[in-house]
Amino acid sequence: MIRKSPMKQEDKQTISGADFEQYFQPQSLEKALEIKAEYEDQIEVAAGSTDLLVANYERLHEIANWLDLVKLDDLKKIEVRDNKLHIGAMTTHLQLMNSDLVKENLAVLAAAAEDVGSPQIRSRGTIGGNICTSSPAGDLLAPLLSYEASFKLQSVEGERIVKAEKFFTGPKRNLMEADELLTEIMIPLRENPREGAWIKVGRRKALVISTLTLSLVLEFEADKIVKSGLAMGSVAPTPIRLKEVEAMMVGKNLSELDYKKLGQEVKARINPIDDLRGTKEYREDVAVDLMVRALNEIERKRG
Amino acid sequence: MQIRLTVNGEKRELEVTPYTRLLDLLREDLGLTGVKEGCGKGECGACTVIMNGELTASCLVPAPQADQAEILTVEGLGTKDDLHPIQESFVEAGAVQCGYCIPGMVLAGKKLLDENPRPTEKEVRYGLSGNICRCTGYAKIIDAVMMAADKLAVEGSDSSD
After folding, report:
1. Nearest CA of chain A to the CA of B114: how many Å?
2. Residue A72's closest chain B neighbor by CA?
3. CA distances (Å), B97 to each of A174, B102, B134, in order?
């Protein structure tokens, strides 16, 4: 079988590289926001392009307008300000998993970044892209919910800060306006020690879209859990935070928790679907086990 | 639009469109056919190049994003008469079946050994996890990378004498 080449000869002839004017690669955020305001949803935003080029495979030439953020170096920084970790939206998965700041303070996010795709994908894909694609299976999204991240959305009109748990509105949908760009992810740092677990279930270890993911972060004072962040991916139309189950853990020691029962509480609050990666029933059963495994892992780490 | 990049040590200036992928640019404009297209969706690793020091699926890079980049393809690693130790090891280990995945495998092996000259087998598997061999010849490919680690270690100690 001869597959049609994505780069067709006739396209090459109608528009030569020199004539193509609708590719914008601004050097400043101000300029990027102006372009976004002008074109709104008529422009494709390119960050690492690992989702964009897959979604538009064989019809890249149909994209009329491009806004490429790759030259915005200000969006590639990871730094601490006002007791928050600020992660630029153009930070790659590779930078996240190798960052000492992220590993020390947000171990679950670093672990999730390490499980994204493959080395070839992690070197290009960005945290901002993962968030804006808003797939229920996006690997960084459950950890961001667990850590109570918030997102800075900017436009020419100004900026707003949106909590991660309010951001996702449906499969591949979020509440961003057409003139906005995600510029920064902010995660509060904590004084108390935290311990966490990240579990991704998929058919292979690499290059797999998650069948389900679980992210659990517990904050301790002595042995007492004083704060809890529990979130899952691929079990509902959006990544979800399980606040009711979080509340069942707060104020207790790990030894006072019934892991299996908490697993059942998780199962009661998720709403998975049947798809090619797993059935609803499978996901519900595995969700119970993941909660137990996550708690066991935290217990072992605190051991 | 025009981009500038360095490919296998040579500076290039090229006219590209956004729907030229780095893969197309390397294969069609520069004739570097060691870069293969397998899936075209970043899942198989046949199009792997080293871009700015990192493993990259060239099928997922719009050419304008490669502006100012430094690219290494398998052609830049060694020649037929002067193989890189990793390439030699692939030959000696009999790691090549149909061969389609091999340029990507070799580059993934190089990147791994650059960062971790004495990897365990598990680390080799992780380093090659973005590359699929549909002949399923993984065992010998992993052997080849381990063998290359030995070769490079010997070379390294020779040159330090």
Report:
1. 14
2. B65
3. 46, 9, 10
CB distance from B157 to chain A under 8 Å?
Answer: no
- The answer to whether the complex's ipTM is over 0.85 is yes
Check if CATH label 3.30.465.10 holds for domain A73-188. Answer: yes
* Chain A residues touching residue B70 (CB < 8 angstroms): none
Q: Domain A194-302 maps to which CATH number in 3.40.50.970, 3.30.390.50, 3.30.70.3270, 3.30.300.30?
A: 3.30.390.50
Asked if B62 lies within 8 A of A25 by C-beta distance, the reply is no
What pTM, to 2 d.p., does this model score? 0.93
Ordered structural domains, chain B, with CATH: 2-76 (3.10.20.30), 85-156 (1.10.150.120)
Smallest Cα distance from A249 to chain B, Å = 35
% of chain A with per-residue pLDDT over 70: 94
Q: Which residues of A fall below an 8 Å CB-CB distance to B? A: 6-7, 11-12, 15-18, 20, 23, 25, 46, 49-50, 53-54, 57-58, 60-61, 63, 66, 68, 70, 94, 117-121, 123-124, 205-207
| Nearest residue to B109 (alpha-carbon basis) of B126, B92, B133, B97 | B126
3-state secondary structure at position A269: coil
Distance between A116 CA and the closest CA of chain B, angstroms: 11
What tens digit of pLDDT does each residue of B20-44 get? 999 999 999 999 999 999 999 999 9
Tokens describing residue A138: 């996006």
Interatomic CA distance for residues A257 and B90, integer angstroms: 53
| Amino acid symbol at B154 | V
- The ranges assigned to domains in chain A are 20-68, 73-188, 194-302
